[in-house]
Amino acid sequence: MELSTLVVAKKTKNRARHLAVLLLLVACACAGGIEPAGGAGGRWDLLQSSIGVSAMHMQLLHNDRVIIFDRTDFGRSNLSLPDGRCRVNPRERVLPRGDCTAHSAEYDVAANAFRPLSVFTDTWCSSGTVAPDGTLVQTGGWNDGFRNARTMPACGGTGDDKSCDWSEKQDALAANRWYATNQILPDGRAFILGGRRQFSYEFYPKAGPSDTSVVQMPFLVQTKDPEENNLYPFVHLNIDGNLFIFSNNRAVLLDYKSNKIVRTYPVLGDGDPRNYPSSGSSVLLPLKPNPTEAEVLVCGGAPAGSYNSTKGGAGTFVPALTTCGRIKITDAAPAWVIETMPSPRVMGDMILLPNGAEVAIINGAADGAAGWESAKTPAYAPVVYRPDHSPGDRFEEQTATGVARLYHSSVVLLRDGRLLVGGSNPHTYYNFSNVQFPTDLSLEAFSPEYLDASNDMLRPRILDPSPTGAPTSVAYGATMALQFSVPASVRRRHGGAAGLLGDVSVTMVAPSFTTHSFAMNQRLLFLDVTKNVAVRGRASTFNASVTMPATAVLAPPGYYMVFVVNGHIPSEGIWVQIQAQQ
Ligand SMILES: *[C@@H]1O[C@H](CO)[C@@H](O)[C@H](O)[C@H]1NC(C)=O
Ligand SMILES: *[C@@H]1O[C@H](CO)[C@@H](O)[C@H](O)[C@H]1NC(C)=O
Ligand SMILES: *[C@@H]1O[C@H](CO)[C@@H](O)[C@H](O)[C@H]1NC(C)=O
Ligand SMILES: *[C@@H]1O[C@H](CO)[C@@H](O)[C@H](O)[C@H]1NC(C)=O
After folding, report:
1. How far is the CA of 369 from the centre of ligand 2 (A)?
2. Of 73, 134, 350, 365, which has the highest C-beta tally within 10 A?
3. Who lines ligand 1 at CB under 6 A?
């Protein structure tokens, strides 16, 4: 354990004079770290007991609102459409003569308020990306929504909000996409992969009205087993521009431009399935500045046969997998390294925390599989994984919630560092009673330990370019000046002169489209901090200069949250839109 010196400058009555107080504190600057005095394990808060819609899919947009939606053919939700509107859709399975309830909602984080949105064709088990201009582009679904594309803009907050809603484009895709995965590409298009009985990929937006091209992907056929554990495949954009695609129990690296498999990865561990319905989860671990390597971590899942064994009169609920596999996807001879979680988990979500030092594994169950009535033991306690700690010292169980977050639950990172958690609808309809795990319409926040008040002295605050967090535009490879303050500024004992920050990093995080235990498009990059200087006369205020990623392969164009991180304590983020110079 390393001791760090804290230099704290307090303002005296005379603004020109400052009293420097030296404190010796222990800071987390080593493997193992320290447990803060209070708040270890994080905290849960109930934000809304009901938003009326179950959060099967969630996406945070750069207006700090979260677009939430369920499926539409599920009977009446608990949220009415505005202005007495009703949806009459003859292809609707449950209420073809009219449904006056909403199946999507917009959650305003700052106001802790929500409003109904209108989505009229079925979004069940669909996927999405956020376009470079910040519009949510959501694709696929079921029935009348199989091949639809829908957009939802980040509304301006200027009073026109009420008319700001979903737009739907019927049959915009070339193939049915139900349980497909989307990944944003460096050119801003979505790569859309798989789905039930779809062993192919396509791109959206289309080149033109006559573009109905679909590219076959035999790997999805090869990884289809009798339970179809190849759905919602995990897709990550590698730093070489190829796509890492994990399905069932193994992965390939796809050059999507030439439709060539350029690398084949070994089977993960014993070959247990990790994709829907044996849903595990997967993240691309945080990328260093100008990265030369990239790693993927896949955690949890369910043994083959778990889904089937829950069915029938005497259904049994098999314990979920406790293992994770970690692999350097950039290696010429890649190998999985197996690690063991503190507890089994299926349908867990993996979310990169903005400090770049931790991955939250949250939601899901300890047994069964994804599907209707297919899990019996909720996993109430999240786990944090610290990729840079030594093996054997990476997992830490967190504070438990009391709410079961089973099938059709989801989670997204918010700009303030909390995780927004919602959903759970493990039945065929909105069943609020007479079932073991009623459909859940609540929203909770999980505040990781770094948000505990005991860390407030160490928490950076970004003052410039955007004290309010409002979006700033940046170009690839550009430098961005960041001014931030820290109540107590930490420097390493052996590093730098007094007043210089030591353990400060800057991260940039792409908000995810989360559904079915996979946070699509999630990406965290450490930015190169080229210099940081204390602003004269204000010892706790610092100027830093950071370099944006050089290419759209490293960071596809669009909106990201940028955080200043002191040790492992992140600031509130600001939004930046990265784009090619006009
Ligand atoms: C649904 O709404 C009704 C009426 O507003 C309310 O009484 C009920 O508790 C709600 N149910 C759920 C599960 O939120
Ligand atoms: C699961 O059940 C389906 C449908 O009954 C069957 O076709 C399949 O072979 C079963 N798979 C396994 C792994 O038991
Ligand atoms: C859920 O409710 C529907 C009708 O609202 C009913 O038909 C169905 O059997 C229920 N499912 C369960 C698992 O209770
Ligand atoms: C720090 O940044 C602010 C605003 O970004 C700028 O006005 C100021 O000159 C900078 N100070 C130093 C010492 O670099």
Report:
1. 14
2. 365
3. 50, 78, 432, 441
